[in-house]
Every structure is written in C-alpha cells, then in structure tokens.
Task: inverse folding
C-alpha cells in the first residue's frame, strides 16, 4: 500500500507531466481559462490515460514491436471517441466549450509516452497506478492554472459549473472581484504562459525548501 501511495505521489509531484516534464502544454495553456474547462479536460485526459495504460499493459506481450506505436494510437483514438460521445450526450455545453481539444487528446504526448515507456513494460496494477499519478498531476495543474486565470481575468471562480455538473450547480459561481471589463491578458495565451511560469517557479521553490529542510535534519550541525 505504501509503494502504491509513494508511486502515485511521485508521479503527481516530483515527476509531474506538466510542471516537470512540460508535456501536453498546448491543451494545458489553451483550455485553462476557467476552472470548469480545466476540470473537464483534466477528467477526460485522466480517463483516457487510465484505460489506455490498462489495455496496453494487458496486451503488451501480444503487440509486435514494429507496429506498437500505431496500435497505441488506435487504442487511444477509440477511448477518446468514447469520451467524446459521452461528453456530447451528458455535458453538451462543456463539449462545445472544449471544442477541438477533446479529439486532440489523441495526440497528447503524455498518453503516448506513458504507453510506450511504462504501460508496455509493466503489470496492469503498476500501469494503473502510473496513470492515476500522471493523470491526477496533470489535472491538478490544469485546475490551478484555470483558477489563476479565471480569478485574474474574470474576477470569478467556478463560473460555468453548470456546464459540467448540471443546472443545480449554477449558484456555485462566486464573484470575487467586480470588473467593469475582463482582464484580457490573463485570458489570452500570454497570460497562460505567465501563469504557468509562476506555477513552475512555485514548485521549484517548494522543492528547494524541502531539500534544505532535509539537509538540516541529516546534518544538524
């Protein structure tokens, strides 16, 4: 149990796909204008990554090495199509909001990379753990980035919660600042890059602080 927990934590923090490996930046920076958009894409990516890792691990001994990448892409495409149809059926407005970035999950290098470097070489349980850690790390980064940009750009938080959760969630929206006009820099691509830079810097500063604390514990003198 401790090994499972430590593996998931490692993938979420120390090997975070967005903040450390800098993978999947295109959808990360484009979609994260609100928390709900970010959460919707994060959940979709996590589900595709999770089931893809499991399927690849199950059939890893039956895939010819010469055609493994095309097979991985076919599996990912099938899973993305299923997710796309489900979102179209149950969260149609969010589906429209995310637009092209749902089918583009197929080309997300995080999913292909984990299939190639991990799921195709490990057991189903290990592959599932890897997907949970990587997918959750990506999702948390998406939500944090969405929160920063939504608050700075619109002065709100959880705007459009009804798109993901239904009409009952409309009152969840909280207005933090009353802007006469949106702060467009936060909502446009430059704001996404700036916000991402702050998150990466914050992670590095946190890691440095923990390393210094560990050094003091090991060398109290």
Result:
């Amino acid at each position: 149990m401790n090994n499972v927990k430590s593996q998931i934590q490692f993938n979420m923090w120390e090997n975070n796909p967005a903040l450390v490996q800098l993978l999947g930046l295109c959808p990360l920076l484009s979609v994260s204008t609100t928390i709900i958009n970010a959460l919707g894409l994060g959940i979709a990516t996590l589900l595709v990554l999770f089931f893809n890792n499991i399927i690849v691990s199950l059939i890893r001994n039956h895939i010819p090495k010469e055609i493994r990448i095309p097979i991985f892409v076919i599996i990912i495409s099938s899973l993305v199509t299923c997710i796309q149809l489900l979102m179209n059926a149950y969260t149609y407005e969010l589906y429209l909001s995310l637009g092209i970035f749902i089918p583009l999950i197929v080309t997300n290098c995080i999913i292909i990379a984990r299939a190639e470097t991990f799921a195709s070489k490990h057991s189903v349980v290990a592959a599932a753990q890897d997907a949970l850690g990587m997918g959750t790390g990506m999702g948390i980064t998406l939500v944090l980035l969405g929160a920063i940009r939504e608050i700075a750009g619109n002065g709100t938080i959880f705007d459009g919660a009804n798109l993901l959760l239904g009409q009952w969630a409309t009152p969840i929206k909280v207005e933090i600042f009353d802007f006469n006009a949106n702060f467009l820099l936060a909502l446009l691509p430059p704001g996404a890059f700036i916000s991402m830079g702050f998150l990466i810097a914050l992670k590095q500063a946190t890691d440095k602080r923990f390393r210094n604390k560990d050094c003091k514990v090991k060398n109290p003198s």
Remarks:
- The chain has one domain: 2-218.
- The mean pLDDT is 88.
